[in-house]
Amino acid sequence: MYPPRFNYESPKSLAEAISLLTAGGGEAKVLAGGQSLVPMLKLRFASPEMLVDINNIPGLNYVRRDADGSIHIGALCRHEDLEKSEVIAEHQPTIAAAAPLVADPIVRTRGTFVGSVCHADPQGDWSATMIALDGHIVAQGPNGKRNIPARDFVTGPFQNALAFDEIAIEAVIPAPKGDVHGGYLKLERRVGDFATAAVAVAVETSGGKVIRAGIALTGVGGRTINANVAADSLVGSALTIESIARAGELAAAAAEPRSDHRGSASYKRHIVSTFLTRILNNISESTVKAA
Amino acid sequence: MSSLYEEISAPPAAGVPVRRVTLNVNGQDRTVDVEPRLLLAHLLRQGLKLTGTHTGCDTSNCGACTVLFDGRPIKSCTMFAVQADGHEVQTVEGLATQSSLHPLQEGFKEEHGLQCGFCTPGMMMAAKALLESNPNPTEDEIRWAISGNLCRCTGYQNIVKAILWAAEKMRGSSN
Ligand SMILES: Cc1cc2nc3c(=O)[nH]c(=O)nc-3n(C[C@H](O)[C@H](O)[C@H](O)COP(=O)(O)OP(=O)(O)OC[C@H]3O[C@@H](n4cnc5c(N)ncnc54)[C@H](O)[C@@H]3O)c2cc1C
Ligand code: FES
Ligand code: FES
């Protein structure tokens, strides 16, 4: 399968990349890991006039934790960099749990976290983690930088809030105010398949009580679902059997699954509540142990 | 020098963008003129006649086209040849030397790690990347590392054994 013809540029700086996008007037596209874009081009779902390859721009491949506790993921940080990162293993359980479940090990050497969020696939894993963690994307365009909250970033299936001349340069997970807990569970038919259903959870606790919670669902709707009602129901008290069960019901109600070859809608709802309950039970056990 | 998607070695038609790139393939610098839309897998197979790299699905799923790009395994059907400019690519043709097979090739032979052989080059390249970072992998780690490579014949059992065989041989020879 041949992609359609396009011009190719490989700028060496962000400024150069942004002016190429500006000159492209909406007909140029960013090429990051290419693990979604190249297949789309081959299937002719996209036919940009120009690809602006950002892989040769120095300084974009990082994952780091700042002194305030916020975590920063650069535009060229690959899935496997997160899978191997000590910073993530030690400080960010939601991302750590999802990293080995994204695609397959070979796709993970190229595909990027930020590119995946930009791709806005309703079945993509990283958008859900970003929403659960209340993260934001830093976008840079001709007029400088702006922050876009993850929950507003995805505007529809395969659509994001970036202007045509903006590049997402980093994803930021804000500094926690309490103890950090989280998890990600995904049901897939086999390695490399997209989620039948998946659940991302991020919880902060202080003195045994939940002070912040985020829950997002993958693969059970036309876009990543922010199960904020379920998450809010947990805030202000300790995790108990009752509060966990209640959150499971609310998350299942927030899902908008469709029956397809991966399973029926009711099965997927059931998976959502089961996964959420499992993750919250684990968190509850670990907070009890720590206390 | 070849300009692919147009007739090989014919000058490209007017208006067709062409890029000159130099990449190192199995230790040798190669300079080629390519259209940006040319996939790395096609450059290797059609342009450089290195047909050991297979294309099975062409949809980024099967891993038959796996090569090492600066030492890491990638699906060469999911990267453009222009992107390899200035980079190192290793293909299955780079495994054996004039006089001997690579331990992975020996392992696949000894343990019957292939039947039709279609997935084999990709399997070996994925395994090479694994053994470079983890010389003593468990069976589980091997299964995990080749989980992006599909085999329709063997049921994987003997592929795993072949990689274990190679790992042991390579540990022995580096002592
Ligand atoms: C076999 C296979 C299985 C997969 N399975 C999964 C899975 O289970 N879960 C999952 O989440 N994903 C999966 N993926 C997708 C994979 O994770 C991709 O890596 C990811 O979706 C896109 O990231 P990328 O860096 O490859 O982006 P690209 O493919 O380069 O780009 C994707 C889109 O985002 C835009 N873009 C990329 N980076 C930026 C940026 N910095 N600024 C602005 N726009 C940008 C591009 O213009 C393009 O429109 C799979 C892919 C394959 C091939
Ligand atoms: S041919 Fe590249 S993944 Fe199948
Ligand atoms: S040996 Fe036939 S596909 Fe693996």
From TrEMBL, chain B:
Keywords: 2Fe-2S, Iron, Iron-sulfur, Metal-binding, Oxidoreductase. Gene3D superfamilies: 3.10.20.30, [2Fe-2S]-binding domain (1.10.150.120). One of its GO terms (molecular function) is 2 iron, 2 sulfur cluster binding. CDD domains: fer2. Residues 19-95 form the 2Fe-2S ferredoxin-type domain. This is Unannotated protein. The lineage of its organism: unclassified sequences, metagenomes, ecological metagenomes.
